[in-house]
Design a protein that fits this description.
single chain; two-stranded antiparallel sheet
């Protein structure tokens, strides 16, 4: 699977060609499961399969590069991509030690030919086509766009000794999600520079773009767009998916 298909650009009528990079190479220690969280069952499908669905259906995504543990590449090809018909997944790449390594490897596996890179966590299975569209369209105009939600609670900066350093202005604090969209060459160069210069502590891809001096704009994310990290998150994702299904009937 990793080498059998060649990435193809979006059809000529589209202004921008977008590739989605889906990092799903984590081990999921906090899930306390023998199986990595991205492969756990969620309403009849692996979490990762639920995540991939909206990207397969979106008219704003030309191709997908999936990044998973090297030991799981054949499994993903057979039991996720082929089984569920994700024809937009054109390459499966092996992940790295850190998330930022996995994203870089995914970008490099795409081999260029795209205008935008859309990066989304493989364990955010409730992303929808509307959010994907907003982020992609935003990046077409503003170069770098991330999904986020305004903080609901008071946020405090705390020092190493557990003493409060300061109270942040809540109206200026946003809780960041994925997807995040960037000009393809911008984010590729940012990740490569991070390796060259030893940048550490990048909790999301936008931080690398900020370090390149590129402004990042926020678009409103989704309350449902949770990250499945713990058993409680998985139960919440099940509840939200069932609620969606019930409301659509």
């Amino acid at each position: 699977m990793p080498d059998r298909l060649r990435l193809e650009p979006m059809s000529n009528h589209a202004t921008l060609r977008t590739v989605a990079i889906i990092p799903a190479a984590g081990s999921g220690i906090r899930m306390k499961s023998r199986r990595a969280k991205q492969f756990l069952s969620l309403e009849g499908r692996p979490v990762l399969a639920q995540t991939l669905g909206p990207f397969q259906e979106s008219n704003h995504v030309a191709a997908v590069v999936l990044v998973v543990p090297q030991t799981e590449m054949e499994y993903c090809s057979r039991e996720i991509v082929d089984r569920f018909g994700f024809t937009k997944v054109k390459r499966i790449a092996p992940g790295g030690r850190r998330r930022m390594d996995s994203v870089r490897l995914g970008l490099e596996a795409a081999e260029g030919g795209f205008d935008l890179a859309l990066i989304h966590d493989g364990v955010r299975p409730l992303v929808d086509k509307d959010l994907i569209e907003r982020v992609v369209q935003g990046a077409a105009a503003d170069r770098a766009v991330i999904a986020a939600l305004p903080a609901k609670e008071t946020v405090k900066e705390v020092g190493h000794s557990a003493y409060v350093v300061k109270t942040c202005q809540r109206e200026r604090v946003w809780m960041v999600q994925t997807p995040q969209a960037f000009r393809f060459q911008d984010i590729l160069k940012a990740h490569q520079r991070a390796v060259e210069e030893g940048w550490e502590g990048a909790t999301d891809d936008a931080l690398l773009i900020e370090r390149m001096g590129i402004r990042v704009r926020v678009v409103r994310g989704s309350e449902d767009n949770i990250k499945v990290t713990t058993p409680l998150d998985l139960e919440l994702a099940r509840f939200l998916l069932r609620s969606r299904k019930a409301s659509s009937q």
